[in-house]
Amino acid sequence: MYDVDTRHCIICGQEKTDGIRIITEFVCETCESEMVRTDVKDDKYLFFVHQLKQIWIQKNA
């Protein structure tokens, strides 16, 4: 059997297998794709910024 490596996405909170790792955190492929297409004027942009700030807060805590 294959051991599937799932990770907890820091953006959506779901367990996923495909995505990117930023320092010690994981961003799933779906969220990554949505982030790069989101305009800075969109309200969702601020949500993404807030979630990504958690990476730096945890690292510097």
What does the model show?
- The chain has 61 residues and is α+β, with helices and mostly antiparallel strands.
- 44% of the residues lie in helices and 20% in strands.
- It has 2 helices and 4 strands.
- The protein has helices at residues 29-37, 43-60, and strands spanning 7-8, 15-16, 19-22, 25-28.
- The strands form 2 sheets. The chain has a two-stranded antiparallel sheet with strand order 1-2. A two-stranded antiparallel sheet has the order 3-4.
- The radius of gyration is 13 Å and the shape is globular.
- The termini are far apart.
Query: Number of helical runs?
Result: 2
Question: Measured on Cα atoms, how large is the radius of gyration?
Answer: 13 Å
Q: Roughly how many Å apart are the termini?
A: 39 Å
Proportion of residues in β-strands: 15-25%
Q: Secondary structure elements and their pairing?
A:
Elements: E1 7-8, E2 15-16, E3 19-22, E4 25-28, H1 29-37, H2 43-60
Antiparallel strand pairs: 1-2, 3-4
